[in-house]
């Protein structure tokens, strides 16, 4: 079983989407199921409606989940397993207050040493624990040996017990921490492999430790994806607009282009332009580079143009919210723009009321008048020659006026190439001026 486990705490970041795509691709390759697990146990950080946004985005990208879980619904299992860890003495109750812990953290900071939980409550006897009415968290006991795992991108990783520390698994309010809920759910949902961002590398030994302490011996495979850097070479923060999937979609990037770009990023691929189905045929997580990849919006823009060129008329009509008959015209205008709104704008200029510069007004009127009289020729040359004859215009006066009349622009593509794509609508187009 594979899974994508987003927290509904903000807009989906391209790093999250990349993990969602990679897990999906590998699940398809292995013919295994794919779970969407909304990790909503941190009530303070949850934002209403973000779960729906996540689902909508995945659907747009063609990522279909077989099962949907809300992690908060699993709370009773989290509590039961925390209880078992307490009974088995693999975990302990900690009554230290926030203030006490803050003072110890400050002391470690002042002394220039890394803070670690000092084991105060691990030493309490059962009677001392039972006698206490103070609120408590539950902490894991440290492993007796170093925890190791082999990451399919980073290689073998080793974590010493002191770096795993007595991490908290249940909060004072009896809700599980991320590491605990995630570890238990991956076990209960029979997850076999996890691809996620490298910010989770140090969580993996903790999650493995929890499952080992519960006697679960299925080995879960891991691949942690290097972070995505911005153009300045810094970690792409959630606040940077280009990092938001919603922002990219709203700007007019196609889901298929974003997907293509995210699979291409820091990867060795057999070609540059491909679809999700193509990637399922050859994707190998081991080809992902260990070093961070740089997000290049120019490259994404170029890929977007290529995907517009290969999209079917039906797909273009959905994406551009235009009649299916505009497919060829949309593809044609990739020479002028790469994003949906840029291209849409060029086409709507053709079909909307024109603004005629005064120096061309007279010529435009002549041409417009002539067009209403001529038949619509298949061929631009015949059309043009006929109009020149009827209007007695030539050179710039003729061509610029015709261009303005047809496109509402003074620059643009070759009219001879544009003409076949709009000739059936010519009378309608020139009536709007
Ligand atoms: N909810 C975590 C996140 O969004 C999940 C990480 C994981 O895949 O385990 O970062």
| Total strands | 12
Strand order of the largest sheet: 1-2-3
CATH topology value of the domain at 314-432: Arc Repressor Mutant, subunit A
Number of helices: 20
CATH architecture annotation of the domain at 314-432: Orthogonal Bundle
Our estimate of the beta-strand percent is 5-15%
**CATH class division of the domain at 314-432:** Mainly Alpha
Shape field: elongated
Radius of gyration: 30 Å
Q: Major sheet, described briefly?
A: 3 strands, parallel
Indicate the percent of residues in helices: 40-55%
Structural class: mainly alpha
Oligomerization state of this entry?
single chain
Bound molecules: glutamic acid
Low-confidence stretches: none
Q: In whole angstroms, how far apart are the ends?
A: 61 Å
Average of pLDDT: 96
Family: Belongs to the class-I aminoacyl-tRNA synthetase family. Glutamate--tRNA ligase type 1 subfamily.
GO cellular component, one term: cytosol
Main location: cytoplasm
GO molecular function: ATP binding; glutamate-tRNA ligase activity; tRNA binding
Give an overview of the whole structure.
A motif ('HIGH' region) lies at residues 6-16. One of its GO terms (cellular component) is cytosol. Keywords: Aminoacyl-tRNA synthetase, ATP-binding, Cytoplasm, Ligase, Nucleotide-binding, Protein biosynthesis. This protein has 433 residues and is mostly helical. The protein has a domain at 314-432: Orthogonal Bundle (Arc Repressor Mutant, subunit A), CATH 1.10.10. The protein contains 20 helices and 12 strands. The chain has helices spanning 14-29, 50-60, 75-87, 98-110, 126-131, 161-164, 178-188, 204-213, 245-251, 255-264, 276-282, 297-310, 313-320, 327-332, 340-351, 358-373, 380-391, 395-407, 415-422, 426-431, and strands at 2-4, 34-38, 67-70, 91-94, 137-140, 147-151, 155-159, 168-170, 193-197, 221-225, 228-229, 293-294. The strands form 5 sheets. A 3-stranded parallel sheet has the order 1-2-3, with helices on one face. Strands 4-5-8 form a 3-stranded antiparallel sheet. The structure holds glutamic acid (GLU). Glutamic acid binds next to loops.
